[in-house]
Amino acid sequence: xxxxxxxxxxxxxxxxxxxxxxxxxxxxxxxxxxxxxxxxxxxxxxxxxxxxxxxxxxxxxxxxxxxxxxxxxxxxxxxxxxxxxxxxxxxxxxxxxxxxxxxxxxxxxxxxxxxxxxxxxxxxxxxxxxxxxxxxxxxxxxxxxxxxxxxxxxxxxxxxxxxxxxxxxxxxxxxxxxxxxxxxxxxxxxxxxxxxxxxxxxxxxxxxxxxxxxxxxxxxxxxxxxxxxxxxxxxxxxxxxxxxxxxxxxxxxxxxxxxxxxxxxxxxxxxxxxxxxxxxxxxxxxxxxxxxxx
Length: 294
What we know:
Elements: H1 4-59, E1 80-86, H2 96-113, E2 117-123, H3 125-134, E3 140-142, H4 151-166, E4 172-182, E5 185-194, H5 216-293
Parallel strand pairs: 1-2, 1-4, 2-3
Antiparallel strand pairs: 4-5
């Protein structure tokens, strides 16, 4: 059984840990508020650019013979893909990174079962460390971007994949990240961002207000590039908000667990102290009785 001193040291240690977890929860709460604001400000633009590309893809069949843009092509045989994964740079956020890594491993197995070659590109220290540890080759690894999303850096990161797609070196770009739903929930997204699915439109006659000309393809290509750049940037913002919400939950749970442990240890400490006092009293009484008999 632990001594009173050992129990007292354990109680103090757990209390110090509790102070740390409580402070980390407050920090994560403040950071989540800022990340959530940035996410909400970007959400409308991301939604609108997706709506525009979706509308174009729905009605593109009307002029499919007059344009040649691979982003809207119907690629029937996929041989090679870029798999872009976003994880956090830091831990202590529950199963946030594990869920993303698990989804990535499942996607890799799925693609390999179809004899599709995978180029893995990882953003975030935790993901990089894991894939290095298990010996999975990465085509590109970037630290610092997931904890501080930047549009220019996001555009530079996705640019190589886009160029390889346009040059037919890869056939698909897939993005995996754990996104923010609310303060209590995160959701893993597995999103194919290129090629953009071309859907048949029920009213092709109203596709364009102007006739396609020589510049039409360059306009669409510019739109597609802007689309994937912003999707990449928005995914980083979404992942960061999800990370902070997951860490806030994890630290809140850790604080509560620490409080429960302090209460249990305090109970053991008080019980041990009472037993020690009782034992001392018994020893004193026993000694007094022995002296009386003499």
